[in-house]
Amino acid sequence: MKSRRAILLCLLLGALMGGCQPLMLGTRPQPKGLPSGVAVFTGSERLSEFSPATSDPSALTPKREAVFLSSARNETTAFQALFSANRSQTRYTFTPSELQMDGGLETTLPASAITLYRELPVQIDSFPAWQIRQTAAALRAGKWFDKLSAIDGPVHVATDNRLAIWCDVRVPASAKAGIYRGSIRVDMRPGKTVYLPIRLRVWAATLPATPTILCLGQFDHAQLFRHFLGRVPTAIPAAGTLRRSDIHAVRDAIQAFCRTAKSHGLSVFDQGLRPKLAPDKTTLSATFDRFDALVGPLLTPKNDPHALMAWPVSVTTTWPDVKPFGSAAAPGYAKAMGAIVRASNRHFHLAGIQDRLFAFPAPTPADQTNFASLASHLQAADRDLPILSLTPPADATHWKYIHMLAPPAEQFSPQLATRLAPSISPLAGLYLRPSNPPFLPPIHPLAQGGDVRALCWFTKKYNARGILLGNVVAPPAATPQLDTLFYLDGHGATARICPSVSLKFLRTGMADLAYLRLLERSKRADLVRSILNTMTRFAGSAAASATPHVPRLGGWVRRAALWQRIRLVLAESATKTGKPQTPQQHQADLKLWRQICDALCEIDVEQVHTRILPATVNSPSKATRVEVAVTLFNQYPTEQACLLSLANLPKSARPLSKNTPVSNIAPLERRTVHLAFELDTLPITSEGKIPFGIQLQQPLGKTTVHATSAAVLIAKTAHRKPTIDGKLNDWLAVPANTAGGFVLLGNRGRTARPQAQNATTVQVLQDQTHLYFAFRCNHPTPNHLRHKPTNRLHYQQLLAVGEECVELLLDPGCDAKAPEDLYHIAIKPSGVVLEELGIGTTPPLGRHRRLPLSSTVAISRTPTAWIAELRIPKSAFGVDGKQTRWGINLMRHCTPSHEASSWVRATHHLYHPTNLGTLFVFPPPKR
Predict the structure, then answer these.
(1) Which of 35, 178, 310, 732 is 20 to 30 A distant from 836 in Cα terms?
(2) CA–CA gap between residue 91 and residue 73 (Å, rounded)
(3) CB 261 within 8 A of CB 486
């Protein structure tokens, strides 16, 4: 179905590129005209050492003979090239040509318009919880290309390493619209020369020079000095002095870093550049020399198009030190605060940038306890100074102090803007702060281009003032974190500050917003809103499901090819700005956008829950009843209807629900529909499942079938009790007592059967007094399992991370209403067992308490797996231990492939009663 939708979208947009380019799935054919051993990708994809060695058709012309680029005037477009490993080719030299316009021999873009970077790899060995959730395949630790190093000479590559190249093409505002052609000559040692042909379409539209939103990021000048010099100097010579020194070189590197950031739409500031206080720490002296030497020129808009857009007044909860004054409430402290603010205003007023000042009194959430007292001093000193807070105030009376708010991602809501104190400052407003995906898209070396671009789009969707980032410079030799947009590379004379691929993605997102602004100016706001809702669906607090900390997936489109095609439509539409539209043209535009939405969107089967009721419960029919709850999500930006039915049922099944119409599903909303069927026998597979399908007749007559299953096990009676010794040779192999086919958690953009790479099987038996479980966990290196010697698990976003373990959820009687009603057992490869009622996750899912179940565990290892045997007395569950029908789910966390998988599939998190299968524990025959 996804392939059909992609081809349909291609047919709609192919004319924009001069022909249709179907989105190829799987292996990409190597195009003619491009050199062998070189794969070309768009500037929206994330490359790694695992990337395919064949080109992305979206990056090529229709006949696949050249790289295809498109750009408005005053925009930078990009592509990537990946050179396969070759033992003999270890040095590459790149020589761009000028780009000549078709039919205009004297109309060219100079070779200097092309800038080349080498993409250096970043080693990533662990993955955050959000990445584990949203990836439909097993994650592999390895090298991800993210650090960019400008190419200014031959590039040397180690033997058998892949070479990734990023190519920027800058189109000036004065360029003429049309088709340009050029190439990049690649001289490979020894003695081989190839060419990368480029075809560039320049659109008849000019993007504004000023970014449509504010994107603010932080850096630490002390961190940069330590990297370049190994120390932080006590004095920094003023700019313009004749004497050159290492300090001047570092200052120049910092200024170049700030300019590079601004050229990509990012304005950076340093919280640590502060005025110098007099020795008694209570009075202010003339203090801005250090500040002016480092970034003063970058804050002056005269003759500098990269002038920074915002800078904080240097007052925080930790500076100046409150101790000399006795307390924050002391009159002397308030007087000092006022003096600092007034001195800053005077200094920056002379530079003409007073309107760019803001106060950032609590730079970390931990500082919020002192926020109000300091904010009151700041407001008393300057009522027009906008104040930034990272969290909404706990006390409603404190809203009067906040003009700029950047809440955590899960707390973001557009309604917060209505509570901000009024301000005339251009900096005032509500800001997105990527922190804790998938509530907002991430900026991270693992983030796709669609993620970062969608973050920009959400500012438009929610009318946010901009984006606020943390430290955008990753410390050297540290694992990249959220907000990483620059890297510190090299040491001493070779030290440098390198931009990241994510910074390029951010620049593209800014350009997207400029296109949207052009469309709005031409009175096409309805089109803008339609495509916004299609590509970006929900985020922030709107991405929370039943509880605020449980994320809903699928909040934005992540597929690079679809973003690439949408951008072409935006560019084509932007060329029509300023021209009066006839009603017929307006209707044609609306029809095109509706067709695009139809190609991109569908009614999605987001989650299927099943409940099995045996004949004794189901009464007169004497058949087993399977109840199915189907949660649908409407991806369309308009209200939709569909037709739902059961499909591919077992032969002995009798559907109790025929074609079920579902109408009036609101845009970007969910609807749960209940279906049912009966079975005279239970056709349980070797994986412990009864497979069937959900057939959905989509809008426009499209029909999709979602493969699913009802999970069921039968605890057969063991004629001989298994010995709990970690060996499985005494286990009874009988039908219906084995669970397998574990599927991955979450999976935004999921496949039909996202099975775990490392298989897990579980057998269950019983006797008069005990339940027995045997876990077999396939593992590539079972003698090197990661685990900690503690009886607790570390959670991120309701996901156990960092160590190998298996988990068991039990609900005897199937009457649990919430996670706190479930029995939870976790087993580590060391034999450590965690037993509790409720689940002790972070954040919490309700009450939980440790509850010893007197279970017995044995662990063993084979060359290909590790094994855990578990025996639990039924009496540990009290009277519920005598129940016939139990809810059950079996889970595993596998560190080599960074997988979280379960026997019963879960979309949001694993620990809820609706994510349980059925375990029948029929009374054993009495002897």
Answers:
(1) 732
(2) 35
(3) yes
**Pair 861, 850: CB distance under 8 Å:** no
pLDDT for position 25: 29
What 8-state DSSP symbol labels residue 329?
Answer: T
Asked if pLDDT for residue 130 goes beyond 90, the answer is no
pLDDT tens sequence across 862-878: 999 999 999 999 999 99
**Contact present, 823 and 844 (Cβ < 8 Å):** no
DSSP for residue 875: G
Hey, which residues does 717 pair with through a beta bridge?
766
Alpha helices in 352-448 (DSSP H): 371-381
The pLDDT of residue 206:
93
- Average pLDDT for the chain: 86
Asked if residues 317 and 374 have their Cβ atoms less than 8 Å apart, the reply is yes
* Residue 3, phi then psi, degrees to nearest 5: -65, -45
- The CA-atom distances, in angstroms, between 660 and each of 76, 634, 651, 663, 677 are 50, 16, 21, 10, 13
| Joined tokens for residue 528 | 């803008």
What is the per-residue pLDDT for 803? Answer: 92
For the chain, counts of helices (H) and of strands (E): 14, 47
584 pLDDT above the threshold of 80:
no
Tokens of 309: 């857009």
Which residues lie across from 624 on neighbouring strands? Answer: 679
Strand partners, 178: 202
Closest by CA position to 412, among listed 555, 298, 274: 555
- Strand 155-156 versus strand 670-679 pairing type: unpaired
**Is the dihedral angle over the CA atoms 747, 409, 459, 462 positive or is it negative?**
positive
Separation CA 49–CA 123 (nearest Å): 10
d(CA 736, CA 688): 6
Please give the Cα distance from 361 to 351 (Å, whole number): 23
Annotate 577-626 with three-state secondary structure. Answer: CCCCCCHHHHHHHHHHHHHHHHHHCCEEEEEEEEEEECHHHHHHHCCEEE
**Among 853, 923, 881, 872, CA closest to 770:** 872
Q: What H or E segment, with its residue span, contains residue 777?
A: strand 770-778
Residues in the chain, overall count: 927
- Burial of 448 by CB count in 10 Å (0-12 exposed, 13-18 middle, 19+ buried)? buried
What is the predicted pLDDT for the residue at 216? 95
Nearest 5°: phi and psi at 234? -80, -25
* CA distances in angstroms from 741 to 446, 651, 758, 902, 905, listed in the order given: 27, 22, 10, 8, 10
pLDDT digits (tens, 9 = 90+) for 733-765: 777 999 999 998 886 555 555 788 899 999 999
Cα(443)–Cα(472) distance, integer angstroms: 10
Classify each residue of 656-690 as buried b or exposed e, where b means 16 or more C-beta atoms within 10 Å of its C-beta: eeeeeebeebeebeebebebbbbbeebebeebbbb
Residue 68 CA to residue 909 CA, distance in Å, equals 41
Burial call 204-226: b when 16+ CB within 10 Å, e when fewer: ebbbeeebbbbbbbbbebebbbe
**What does the pLDDT look like over 101-124, one tens digit per residue?**
988 777 899 999 999 999 999 998
Q: Which residues of 73-83 are buried (b: 16+ CB within 10 A; e: fewer)?
A: bbbbbbbbbbb
Alpha helices in 246-304 (DSSP H): 246-263, 289-294, 296-299
CA atoms within 13 A on the CB side of 686: 3
pLDDT digits (tens, 9 = 90+) for 341-358: 888 887 777 666 777 889
Centre a 10 Å sphere on the Cβ of residue 378 and count the other Cβ atoms it contains.
22
pLDDT in tens, 74-87: 999 999 999 987 76
pLDDT score, position 750: 53
Residue type at position 464: A
| pLDDT at res. 403 | 96
Higher-scoring residue by pLDDT: 132, 477: 132
